[in-house]
Design brief:
Helix content: 55-70%
Distance between the termini: 57 Å
Number of helices: 17
Largest sheet: 4 strands, antiparallel
Structural class: alpha+beta
Strand order of the largest sheet: 1-2-3-4
Number of strands: 6
Bound molecules: zinc ion
Order of helices and strands: HHHHHHHHHHHHHHEEEEHHEEH
Number of domains: 2
Strand content: 5-15%
Length: 294
């Protein structure tokens, strides 16, 4: 039985080891019948310094190395993904954590469907968290990021079984695509559409406001709670045919995926808003960018 059938270790790790020489490849075959043995993870962890890029083996402790080694093209334990998120996204500095991008790209290319989604999401989140200081990282891992982008685009193009099906996964996939393409605040902030609100700053006078896009209405308002009691100004939606640039692209993606609620929100996000303090007119999306880049 081939090593792939046993989920012995991370795809990328395995490919590197098998390509590095016969001895390690033979050891892999010897381990193939011991996939349920907890010692296998430890053995892999001990093997890694001999076959991994220095950037990877120097970046992570043994626990993370063992977790990465447990990723499998056959399907990975959900707890492995949870622990990887906890470690890489929450514990490690974002630029250091990006050393895992090659392993995640390998799973995105060859993993089981659910693992591909997890790999794309984690890699996208790591890049987005490290932005905007990722020029060197993006150059170093350009091929791997291209692989992740292709998988994210494939997932995004899958047919939706019904209108407004699983908007959370849709937004997360769009965020991942944006993260793999380049640094942008929308690779982390687009999720605000699901919460139906954003914090914003007027691009003209820097007045702090809130932006609502959902069941409570479509408006800007001064800070305070509840929003019904504070000064508010209605948003004006753009006609879809009037949208340009990112607004046009995101609306087109949402419409194609039958995410009609999100598509409507986007016509307001990329429509027109009014400053509650001084009456300035602005594109609401620009006021979100203003907050996160000022
Ligand atoms: Zn203003």
């Amino acid at each position: 039985m081939a090593a792939d059938d046993h989920g012995l270790a991370g795809v990328c790790f395995r490919q590197r080891c098998q390509g590095s020489g016969g001895a390690i490849g033979q050891l892999l075959e010897a381990l193939a019948g011991r996939s349920g043995d907890p010692c296998v993870g430890q053995l892999w962890a001990s093997l890694h310094p001999t076959c991994l890029d220095d950037a990877v083996s120097n970046a992570f402790d043994e626990h993370v190395m063992a977790l990465l080694a447990r990723l499998s093209s056959r399907g990975s334990d959900a707890m492995v993904w949870k622990e990887l998120w906890d470690e890489l996204y929450h514990q490690y500095p974002s630029d250091v954590a990006c050393a895992a991008v090659p392993e995640l790209a390998a799973i995105a290319a060859d993993g089981a469907p659910s693992d591909r989604f997890e790999a794309v999401q984690l890699a996208g989140a790591l890049l987005a968290k490290a932005d905007p200081y990722t020029a060197e990282i993006r150059e170093r891992y350009a091929g791997h990021i291209a692989t992740l982008l292709r998988e994210a685009q494939v997932e995004l193009a899958e047919n939706s079984p019904e209108d407004n099906h699983d908007p959370t996964s849709f937004v997360l996939r769009v965020q991942a695509v944006l993260a793999f393409e380049d640094a942008t605040i929308w690779s982390e902030q687009l999720i605000g559409l699901l919460d139906e609100e954003f914090e914003i700053i007027c691009p003209a006078c820097w007045a702090a406001m809130d932006l609502y896009l959902g069941e409570r209405g479509f408006f800007t308002c001064t800070g305070g709670y509840p929003p019904e009691t504070v000064t508010r100004r209605p948003l004006v939606a753009s006609h879809p045919d009037e949208l340009t640039g990112l607004g046009h692209r995101l609306h087109r993606l949402a419409a194609a995926a039958r995410q009609h609620t999100l598509a409507r929100q986007l016509t307001y996000l990329f429509g027109r808003g009014t400053c509650t303090e001084n009456g300035h007119q602005f594109i609401p999306a620009d006021s979100v960018v203003e907050l996160w880049t000022s």
